[in-house]
Amino acid sequence: MSRSEALREDARAMQGELAELRHLLHRRPEVGLQLPRTQETVLAALDGLGLEVSTGTSTTSVTAVLRGGRPGPAVLLRGDMDALPVHEETGLDFSSEIDGVMHACGHDLHTAMLVGAARLLHAHRERLAGDVVFMFQPGEEGWDGASYMLAEGVLDAAGSRVSSAYGMHVMSAMNPRGQFTTRPGTLMAASDELRVTVRGAGGHGSAPHLAKDPVSVAAQLVGDLQTLVTRTFDVFDPVILTVGLFQAGTKRNIIPDEAYFQATVRTFSAEARDRMREASVRLCESVAAGYGLTAEVLYLEEYPVTVNAPEHAAFAAEVAAEVFGEQRYAPKVYPQSGSEDFSRVLDAVPGCYLFLGAAVGDDYADLPNNHSPRAQFSDDVLSDGVLLHAELAVRALDRDAATG
Ligand SMILES: [Zn+2]
């Protein structure tokens, strides 16, 4: 039996245990950087494989190193483990048992798939031309868990810097079940936050000339920021700015002292991000000043742009098509406007991030999207996710051993 056939058979044989593990994780979701029960579950699932396992000091991350049968470089596979503050409404029999917390982004599948990949590659370790680092990461959902793991040395866990890194994300809608997709270059947006406090002087609503009305200036800024985006940024290097929170005032006839809003800013290149950081702050400050008010503006950086090295995106596409057939891989035409802290890994080492369709129905486009309280992810993709992880690692090691 060829190596690929053996991997495929062993991955398929895991389907039942992977679904069980996934359901266990799904029933007990945890949010943020501290996921003690999830960590315990992962450690138990890896137990007995003889991996070099270490746990995070600042978070509940788990790093596991598998030594291959032959010396060579090391590659990294990553799975995020955290859930969301969402109250589950799927009605599934393995629904969340924690009120107000749900694996609504499918990270329970990611965790189970990475455990599966560790088990599968362990069973085939003699054929590995190097080592594999398994990165079980907490806090992807806005907590920047990846940066804690990077600071604690995950990229060097095998003793030398990993030569490449791969990860994937399941999608409840948007892709047909079982379809892999990615693209070279920018895959996902950078995500930043803009916080604006417009300070004026409160007064009587009937006499605005005796006050300095922060509400009208802040409201104007909401529109002006859209004008900034459409009039000064290249449409082919897009920017998205959404004001999702706006707070001011207590009563219709009282002009308050302050108005406050928050926006999320998504950019798709480092250049657009740099420009937006500068331009949005300048606009808010100068428009407020124009009316004799002040604006205190904070531009907070969250996640950078997720960029696939072109040769690694081509490699991942080739592996997916070879292992599962051409019809199971679709090149992704446009980047996605979500963001990902795997971007931090891909900033440090080359690699590729992919999406895997996990829709439970065939009319995938109509299904509730990731983060919805009704989002569902099919167990059916688990063993294929494991197999792709494993094939990426095996082939990347062969490739990097030959070149490096
Ligand atoms: Zn996610």
TrEMBL record:
Its cofactor is Mn(2+). The lineage of its organism: Bacteria, Bacillati, Actinomycetota, Actinomycetes, Geodermatophilales. The keyword Metal-binding applies. The keyword Metal-binding applies. It comes from Blastococcus colisei. This is Hippurate hydrolase. GO terms for biological process: diaminopimelate biosynthetic process. Mn(2+) binds at C105, H107, E141, H169, H371. The Mn(2+) ion enhances activity. Coiled coil: none annotated. Residues 194-289 form the Peptidase M20 dimerisation domain. It comes from the Bacteria. Keywords: Hydrolase, Manganese, Metal-binding. One of its GO terms (molecular function) is N-acetyldiaminopimelate deacetylase activity.
